[in-house]
Amino acid sequence: MDVMNVRRNRPASRISAAAAAAGVTALGLVTLTACGTGTAGAGGDGKVNVVASFYPLEYLAEEIGGEHVSVTTLTKPGVEPHDLEIKPRQTAELGEADVALYLKGLQPAVDSAVAQSGVKNAVDAAELAAGEHGDEPSGEPESGGDGHDHSGGASDPHLWLDPTAYAEVAEGFATTLAEADPDHAAAYEKNAGVLVKKLRALDKEFADGLRNRTTDTFITTHTAFGHLAARYGLEQEAIGGLDPEAEPSPARMRELHTIAEREKVTTVFFETLVSDATAKTLAADTGLKTDVLDPLEGITDRSAGDDYFEVMRANLDALRKALGSG
């Protein structure tokens, strides 16, 4: 199926009849219909048609929109978001959305599709969290023995791993939905309030759960946890940079050996959507354990939970064990 895919265990959203009838070209350029004018629901079902680029934004849109929105995602469950390729028909359907919610810089294919589609209400989640968190760096750069910055020279886009930054996105997106669909503004505000309250409680769980640790440092396969580390006073050391498939240099591997010994690191974390080979190699060479720390870029049958909160709590448990807080 080459159209946008809904999250697993969700019924597939209906494809707009307008898109089917239009016979869109290979470039998939279409005109946005009735967005931001108080007339929501280009699909004819009266719901706001939201396209989210990948799971964290899909989940947020569903929680805030509730019964008044129809949410689809560009990234299939199990697909590594950085590797996503967008088909022309997906670009066309993106153009028909009432609201497109994405995270600029995380998925180049999505950035390009948003620009090509002509969608007029494209919302960059990073801008919604542009207060305290939007320009937050990725923490300490992973500088290898060759003197290079292993963060890739870019800020960490994984802002949803800080519950307080994710809460800011939720509040901003509720405003976006209210502007697109004023008739249900109160519902969006209420739903956002419920979600924000849960996120603040999760933030407290992390802050309390990571107290009295024996080390601040953890090793991951790629630079995905800068926001989480900065929020809770931790030090992330990544084997690679922002690209989860990037091969580390020999100098970086040697440096990680030194860091692990000096900082009393116990665990090398790997992820569910990328290979664990490099993490296991480093762990074997240093006598460390391995465990999963999930950047929550997607939910699959291998995930340690069925939604954002379940997987985040699994992450907390893993960090507590690795850092000596458990």
Describe this entry's structure for a reader.
This protein has helices spanning 17-22, 55-65, 88-96, 108-117, 125-128, 163-180, 185-209, 226-232, 250-262, 277-286, 308-323; strands spanning 48-52, 69-73, 99-102, 122-124, 217-220, 235-238, 267-270, 289-292. A four-stranded parallel sheet has the order 2-1-3-4, sandwiched between helices. A four-stranded parallel sheet has the order 6-5-7-8, sandwiched between helices. The longest helix is centred in the middle third of the chain and has 25 residues, at 185-209. It is built from eleven helices and eight strands. Helices cover 40% and strands 10% of the residues. The protein is globular. Strand 3 (99-102), helix 4 and strand 4 (122-124) form a beta-alpha-beta unit. The chain is an alpha/beta fold.
Q: Catalogue the unreliable spans.
A: 1-39, 133-154
Question: SS-based structural class?
Answer: alpha/beta
Number of strands: 8
What shape does the CA trace take? Answer: globular
C-alpha termini separation: 44 Å
Strands in their spatial order, largest beta sheet? 2-1-3-4
Over the alpha carbons, how many angstroms does the gyration radius reach?
Answer: 20 Å
Fraction of residues in helices?
A: 25-40%
Query: What does the main sheet amount to?
Result: 4 strands, parallel
Q: How many H/I helical runs?
A: 11
Mean pLDDT: 80
Estimate the strand proportion: 5-15%
The run of helices and strands is HEHEHEHEHHHEHEHEHEH
